[in-house]
Amino acid sequence: MKKQTNKITTLLFISFLMASTMAYSQVGIGTVTPNGSSILDIQSNDKGVLLPRFTTVERDAISTPANGLIVYNTTTATFNCYNAGWKCFLNDFILPINGGTGIANDNTSTLTLSGGFPTTIATTASTAVVLPATGTLYGTATGSITATQLAHSVTDETGTGSAVFSENPAFTGVPTGLTATIGTHTSQLATTAFVLANINPSKYSSVTAASSISTASPTAVVVDGMTLAPETGLYVVTFNSQYAIDSIDKMAQSIIDLNAVYKTLIEKTATNTSHGSVFGNGETLTTGVYLLTGAGTIAGTLTLDALDNPNAVFIFKIDGAFSSTAGTIVKLINGATASNVFWVVEGAIGMGASTTMKGMLLAHNGAVALGASSNLEGRMFTISGAIGIDNSIITIPTYSSYINLGMLSSTGVFSASGSVSNTGVSTITGDIGTNEVNILGFETAIVHGTINLPSYSNNALATFSIYQNGILIPDSTRIRTANTNTVDISLQAVTAITSGQSIDIRWKIDFGTITLKNRILTLINVR
């Protein structure tokens, strides 16, 4: 009996040793035949394996985690593995694995990345990577996008567009967004760095000047040196400069200019001294300087013929009073213009009712009167005397005069020392001015201009504009005044330019002088 008990004890001991050895080699849960390649084989049709669950804070509190330690992160809802730091497993992805280093792929496949974590995609050959419809692709280090990759480019999912990234300037680790926003339809997108590094010099031009220049021109003239003639294209035009306005006393300058006009005309050498005291009555005269040594009159019709010379000048110097009979008509033919017709009279000037008159009426020592229902294309000036208008029309000529009128270039009626009055519903196109206090009766008149008294504003107006091939670009004009001097002027326009056309900056000032310095004109081609 004792011998049999010993045999049973020995068999149990051997069985225990064998079981221990099997347990040490493999463990099967839910199976008695664990897979030969596994140390732990768990099989179940209705349950899974639940790993330890941690928040990020709890996970980071694990003391000295071993490489390979796996936990489930409840904060990020991902599995984490420790390998010299906690790593995050990718969720919901399917990739064929061909045994290469890292993730490699020789077949068409889909890679889905969930969560907001940085991801690196690396290939060892020419594997194509198809990007999702939304999101941003960028390099994060110098050389992260190579010249070979640039040559192959990156195509969108339709294959119709490309995103171009720059190697120079090099990436600095800060993501560089594309120059176009999401949804923009374009055949090519580029980073701002790429555009700036690859600007075609022929699509950008600029001219600068530091010297001081000035003008007193009342009409727009080109600013010296501020002209460019680019290639065909759409351009942004910009101009900037410092400026200063030197204003003057407008009334005093008007009187100075009026006396200068009189002096210029009266000093002209006569070309005809034999004409009688009466002009008109069907007469036709050609260009010249006509001198009457006494009073003069116009009657009937007088025709002034320029003989197709647009610069023809007619000057009538009358050493006495000057008048017209009622219904007198002065006609201009073959290029003659009212801006170059001058009646310079030493005495008073009186136009009869219903007179149709052409040219400047300038009295040196006397009044000037325009009879009822008359029509004057010209100006009424007097150095010493009053001016009277009776239910008439006065229009300053549209052409510039061959004589510099200075401050009076926009003026239709002016007396240096006398009152200016109106009767009835007259229409005056042009400024009205007098050095006397009295301007009367214009309540019933229609005035297309400014009525100026001795105390009127000396606030000079300077105008700057952009011109294309001699034509003003709409809305490019800016005005500055002497009373509100802003120190600098900036202009901008966008315009389509054809090769051979020019862009220039023009300026003018109604009176006084304007000065520019440190100016720059720039054209940038835009697409």
TrEMBL record:
Keyword entries, A-Z: Signal
Organism superkingdom: Bacteria
Signal peptide: 1-25
Any matching Pfam family: Ice_binding
Family recorded in the similarity comment: Belongs to the ice-binding protein family.
Name of this protein: DUF3494 domain-containing protein
Source species of the chain: Flavobacterium restrictum
Organism ancestry: Bacteria, Pseudomonadati, Bacteroidota, Flavobacteriia, Flavobacteriales
